[in-house]
Specification:
heterodimer; A: 251 residues; mainly beta; Immunoglobulin-like; five-stranded mixed β-sheet; four-stranded antiparallel β-sheet; 17 strands; 6% helix; B: alpha/beta; Oxidized Rhodanese, domain 1; 6 helices; 45% helix
Chain lengths: 251, 143
């Protein structure tokens, strides 16, 4: 019995000490893209410390916003290389965590998950980004709060409505904090407006939307919603046209 | 010292847990502990179908995938072009409508992220993530 336990324990310890052939320098990176950056790129270096070649079976990103690339399909013994993960920031904000799953033909460790954490600076935080009134509702003002993001100093903001049917009034409520009152002239018609919010000394533009909507339909009642552009329906508020996001998406 | 068979099994099971525990402690700050979507914020294809015209479908996938194919009537809203696409969605939204967001499959994050932004930033309610995503919808509707 003693021998049995010893054998089992030794084989267990052997299994523990047997390490994967592909040794990663790091499997997690944290990136801090600068304001205006379009992409954040993570580099994951590895070395084949085993005695046999390692083949990549697949390199797959968790999100269509991330493109993962391997320099080579096969890594010989002692060879080094890296996987790059390119995260397209687009209009994303705050902390973003994306993963890349790498599958190899190693016996011990076939799947490795690489993590990319990008902390995207947020110059202005706007809440809510949408205010609405139901058709016929009293046109009382609704408030949007705007405050400077962490590490940003904002002394002044400018709010512009794309439609003269909505009035806006900005009030400073504290250091880097503002209150924007939005009020429609009337609520009898279906209207929409894009509110453009800009802080001084910054080229970046932020948006909010104001709308007069139809009243909710009763459950089971036929839908009376009209497509944008249809008679009686509000025109879709427009944001400035922007170039499409880079097309290097994988998923 | 003699150990019974169950005792040996317990010792081995305990030993086998050690590497896992060690890795969990060592990598605790390096792993994305993605919180699962609460069941109340998810909807199945069948349930969403029952809502009929009271549903707005949102496709959270990248532009090229939406262009290839999508749920009929779905609106494109992804984070690549959030500022441009959100007003287009808000133009067709009306109170009382249920919003169903989907991405490629159960494992993708895009629908969860878009749904979260609609709830937090636009402060919309009745926002759901489609269980199984586009894959599940195709399976139910086209096979």
């Amino acid at each position: 019995m003693k021998t049995n336990i010893l054998t089992l324990t030794l084989s267990f310890i052997f299994c523990l000490t047997a390490r994967a052939e592909l040794k990663w320098e790091q499997t997690a990176v944290e990136l801090h893209p600068a304001r205006g950056d379009k992409q954040a790129i993570g580099h994951y270096k590895y070395q084949n410390v085993g005695k046999t070649p390692v083949h990549f079976k697949s390199v797959h990103a968790s999100c269509g916003c991330t493109a993962a690339q391997s320099q080579k399909d096969q890594v010989g013994p002692g060879e080094k290389g890296e996987i790059t993960a390119t995260f397209n920031i687009g209009d994303r904000t705050g902390t973003q965590v994306k993963t890349v799953t790498v599958e190899t033909d190693e016996a011990a460790n076939q799947k490795t998950v690489l993590t990319l954490k990008a902390i995207i600076p947020q110059e202005l935080e706007i809440s809510p980004t949408f205010v609405f009134w139901k058709q016929g509702e009293k046109p009382d003002p609704k408030t949007i709060t705007v405050h400077a993001g962490k590490d940003f100093s904002v002394k002044n903001i400018k709010v512009t409505s794309s439609s003269p049917d909505f009035q806006t009034k900005v009030q400073e409520t504290g250091e880097g904090q503002f209150k924007v009152d939005v009020r429609p002239n009337e609520t009898s018609r279906l209207l929409a407006s894009t509110l453009t919010i800009q802080s001084e000394n910054s080229p970046k533009t932020f948006y909010a939307t104001a709308r007069i909507t139809t009243a909710p339909t009763a459950p089971g009642a036929p839908a009376i919603q009209k497509a944008p552009g249809a008679p009686g329906a509000p025109a879709a508020p427009t944001a400035p046209a922007r170039p499409p996001a880079p097309g290097s998406q994988t998923h | 010292m003699k150990f019974s068979l169950p005792c040996q099994a317990l010792i081995l099971a305990g030993l086998s847990l050690l590497p896992g525990v060690g890795q969990a402690i060592y990598f605790r700050d390096k792993i994305s502990w993605q919180s699962p979507i609460p069941p109340s914020e998810m909807v199945s294809v069948d349930q969403a179908r029952e809502w009929g015209d009271n549903t707005i479908w949102i496709d959270a996938r990248p532009d090229d995938q939406f262009a290839r194919d999508h749920v009929p009537g779905a609106i494109l809203l992804n984070e690549d072009r959030w500022n441009e696409l959100l007003p287009q969605f808000l133009a067709v939204w009306s109170p009382g409508k249920k919003i169903v967001v989907y991405c490629s499959a159960q494992s993708c994050d895009l629908a969860r992220e878009v749904a979260e932004r609609l709830r937090k930033e636009a402060q919309l309610t009745d926002v759901f993530v489609l269980e199984g995503g586009w894959e599940a919808w195709v399976k139910k509707n086209r096979s």
